[in-house]
Automatic annotation (TrEMBL):
Binding residues annotated for ATP, in chain numbering: 467-474
Organism of derivation: Serilophus lunatus (silver-breasted broadbill)
UniProt superkingdom: Eukaryota
SUPFAM superfamilies xref list: P-loop containing nucleoside triphosphate hydrolases
Protein name per UniProt: Kinesin-like protein
Record-annotated membrane-spanning stretches: none
Length: 765
């Protein structure tokens, strides 16, 4: 704004200048007009005089001739007179026109006039400059005058001093002469005086006195002469110095004169140059003005022609403009109409989309329901209770030599069969699936994935890791940081599934961690981990169980889970036994609860995923435990056999399921009964030294699995279901009764995997 203000100010100043110029021009123009009118008046005057003369001539001729010739001449003259009168009238008219023009449209911005004014200004400037130069010249003249005056003075002074000097010289020479004369006279005198002295000496004392006086006088005179001589010398020196000064002054005068001469010449030159410059500038300006004038005239002509051509264009433009105006006036109506129709179309389209959308949503829901049912059916077909086996690789901790040799082999055709070499005899087992040592965590999880999905659909799921200490339970459930186990993978899958359904469903995932040690339930995430928790029936009458005071963490990301796990690990009770340095003597439970709410229908689902890392299943005698260790082992054995009992009862569909026999089964009651899914992952070590424990675990696994048979065989199995203690005793003499191998199927039954699938299909109706 400031900049534009300044700019405007500048423009204003410029305009004012222009105005002044124009006013000047106007004055000049007025002068011109005035002179022209004066001239015209003079013409008129002369014409009038001529007319008078003619009239006189006519009358003279008329009087002279009185004849026809004279009359002819008179007629001629009268015509001439008339013409002249008309001419005069025209002149007067022109004059009037000019006056009027001047009054009406004073020439305002004729460039020629502008140029003229500018030139005049230049001229005046040049004149001013000339004036200045002249003033300077006068100043210089004055200076010269002063200098000459001073010179004259100096000369005068010099003359005076010369005259003085001459006088002095003369005086001095006169005195010199006098002195010389005196000296001469004195020189001539001594003889006399000596003589007199002599005579006087002889004569009298008076004469002696006179002699003395004379002598002193003589001395005085001699002194005087010396002084005079000195004065003379000084005078001579003075004379010399004054002569020098004179020469100097003369040189100065010469110099001044030369300078004066030069200044004068310079001044003259400058004046001449200025004069020339002035003339040149005037000429140039004049010529330029003429050229510009011509150009302006040409421009004017061009503008005139332009104007002529522009008029038709203007006419067409006006026409166009009018038609456009009409169109603009009609436009709002048109627009409104179009808008109305468009709106109607759009709303109709929206309506259509809406209905299709609703239809699609309905179909989608039905499909979703169907998928859920199908998935459940699939899981059920696979078996609501399944038993997997996993063989860990031989590790460094197994040591070397025959003790660490591999005792487990697999069937290349059937991934559900494994062979154990125990005490020189090969025993075969059939489970739902067997994972060899090289099976990765991912492969294991792929088999578990369907269960996790079921959990989102609202089913309860239990996954157990069973086996002796060091067989890889913790590895399968938790895994390592680089290669996580089922825990993390399940949660990750849950997160991604939940995210995929976020458009329709609101899901909250909470995590609890607990452990059961010596039949006491403890919260691993609570503030007081030593506190024993109780399992109670829900007061709402739903028959569900819950644990008051069990901490639940809401998790939303993998980072959250890691934090929860770290927190839980610290509190896990682990003790050293001679079987494994970090043998876990308690059951660790990770309970993941998935609560979903369908936003559109308000339907709520709750699914529970229980991941249980069971305590080591090894027998007490072997671990060499005593006292509290022994009690621990007894509790573990009891709870494991109770778990076996429960699963057995479930798979054989018994009326009574002994959930209450241990804390573990009681806690997991909801997740084991009804439409829940259970997976038992039996971990075994392939090492030769562990074969008896491996045999035990595999027997447990096969017994759990083989329960699910037809009603007849189930009964038969029912009779042969042993307790955990019996199982242990059994394993010591296992060579005699090698469990349920392939070979022991009844003859009517099909062997292998196909047979088991068919059995499942039959039982599921
Ligand atoms: P448990 O929990 O049954 O006592 P761990 O899970 O602690 O046994 O396993 C004992 C050791 O064997 C660990 O060092 C573990 O890393 C290793 N291990 C177990 N299973 C596997 C496997 N499938 N692959 C590689 N190492 C394994
Ligand atoms: Mg462990």
């Amino acid at each position: 704004v400031m900049a534009s203000m300044a700019h405007l100010q500048k423009e204003k100043l410029q305009l004012q200048e222009e105005l002044l110029e124009l006013q000047e021009k106007l004055a000049a123009r007025e002068n011109d007009e005035l002179s022209l009118s004066l001239q015209l008046q003079g013409q008129v005057e002369t014409l009038k005089a001529k007319l008078l003369e003619q009239a006189q001539e006519i009358s003279r001729l008329r009087s002279e001739l009185g004849g026809t010739d004279a009359e002819k001449h008179r007629d001629l003259l009268a015509a001439e007179n008339e013409r002249l009168r008309q001419e005069m009238k025209a002149c007067e008219g022109e004059l009037r026109e000019l006056r009027r023009q001047q009054q009406q449209a004073p020439c305002r911005d004729c460039p020629h006039l502008q140029e003229n004014a500018r030139l005049q200004e230049q001229l005046s400037q040049l004149q001013r400059e000339a004036e200045e130069t002249r003033a300077k010249l006068v100043e210089l003249d004055l200076e010269v005058q002063q200098k000459t005056n001073r010179l004259a003075e100096v000369e005068l002074r010099l003359k005076d001093s010369l005259a003085e000097r001459a006088e002095e010289e003369e005086r001095l020479s006169r005195r010199l002469r006098d002195s010389q004369e005196t000296i001469a006279s004195l020189k001539s005198q001594p003889q006399q005086i000596k003589y007199i002295i002599k005579t006087v000496e002889v004569e009298s004392a008076k004469a002696k006195q006179t002699l003395c006086e004379t002598q002193s006088r003589n001395q005085y005179l001699q002194e005087q002469v010396g002084m005079q001589r000195q004065v003379l010398k000084e005078m001579e020196q003075q004379l010399q110095s004054s002569q020098k000064t004179e020469a100097q002054l003369r040189a100065q005068i010469m110099m001044y004169e030369a300078e004066l001469e030069r200044a004068h010449g310079q001044m003259l030159e400058e004046m001449q140059a200025m004069e020339e410059e002035k003339n040149h500038a005037i000429e140039e300006a004049f010529s330029r003005a003429q050229v510009e004038m011509k150009a302006v005239h040409e421009n004017l002509a061009g503008v005139r022609t332009n104007l002529l051509t522009l008029q038709p264009a203007l006419r067409t433009l006006t026409h166009d403009y009018n038609s456009l105006k009409r169109q603009v006036r009609d436009f709002p109506l048109l627009l409104q109409e179009t808008l109305r129709s468009a709106r109607a179309e759009i709303s109709q389209a929206i309506e259509e989309v809406h209905t299709t959308n609703r239809e699609l949503l309905r179909k989608y829901r039905r499909e979703l329901q169907l998928r859920k049912k199908c998935h459940n059916e699939l899981v059920r077909l696979k078996g609501n209770i399944r038993v997997f086996g996993r063989v860990r690789p031989i590790t460094k901790e197994d040591g070397e030599g025959p003790e660490a040799a591999n005792a487990v082999t697999f069937d290349t055709d059937d991934d559900a069969v494994l062979h154990l070499l125990h005490k020189g005899k090969q025993v075969s087992f059939e489970l739902d699936k067997v994972f060899p040592p090289q099976a990765s965590q991912e492969e294991v999880f792929q088999e578990v994935q369907a269960l996790v999905t079921s959990c989102i659909d609202g089913y309860n799921v239990c996954i157990f890791a069973y086996g002796q200490t060091g067989a890889g339970k913790t590895y399968t459930m938790e895994g390592t940081a680089a290669n996580p186990g089922i825990n993390q993978r399940a949660l990750q899958l849950l997160f991604s599934e939940v995210r995929g359904k976020a458009a329709d469903w609101d899901y909250t995932i909470t995590v609890s961690a607990a452990e059961i040690y010596n039949e006491a339930l403890r919260d691993l995430l609570g503030k007081e981990p030593q506190e024993k928790l109780e399992i109670k029936l829900c007061p709402d009458g739903s028959g569900q169980l819950y644990v008051p005071g069990l901490t639940e963490f809401r998790v939303q990301s993998v980072e959250d889970i890691n934090k929860v796990f770290e927190f839980g690990h610290v509190k896990r009770v682990t003790e050293c036994t001679n079987l494994n340095e970090h043998s876990s003597r308690s059951h660790a439970l990770l309970i993941i609860t998935v609560r979903g709410l369908d936003r559109s229908t308000g339907l709520r689902t709750t699914g529970k995923l229980n991941l249980v890392d069971l305590a080591g299943s090894e027998r007490v005698g072997r671990s060499g435990a005593e006292g509290s260790r022994l009690r621990e082992a007894q509790h573990i054995n009891k709870s494991l056999s109770a778990l076996g009992d429960v699963i057995y009862a479930l798979r054989s569909r018994q009326g009574h399921v002994p959930f209450r026999n241990s804390k573990l089964t009681y806690l997991l009651q909801d997740s084991l009964s009804g439409d829940s899914k259970t997976l038992m992952m039996v971990q075994v070590s392939p090492a030769e030294k562990n074969t008896s424990e491996t045999l035990c675990s595999l027997k447990f696994a096969e017994r759990v699995r083989s329960v699910e048979l037809g009603p007849v065989s189930r009964k038969a199995e029912l009779a042969s279901w042993p307790s955990q203690e019996q199982l242990e005793g059994d394993s010591s003499g296992s060579a005699a009764t090698p469990g349920r191998g392939h070979t022991s199927h009844s003859p009517g039954q099909l062997s292998g995997r196909t047979a088991s699938i068919r059995r499942k299909l039959q039982t599921s109706g």
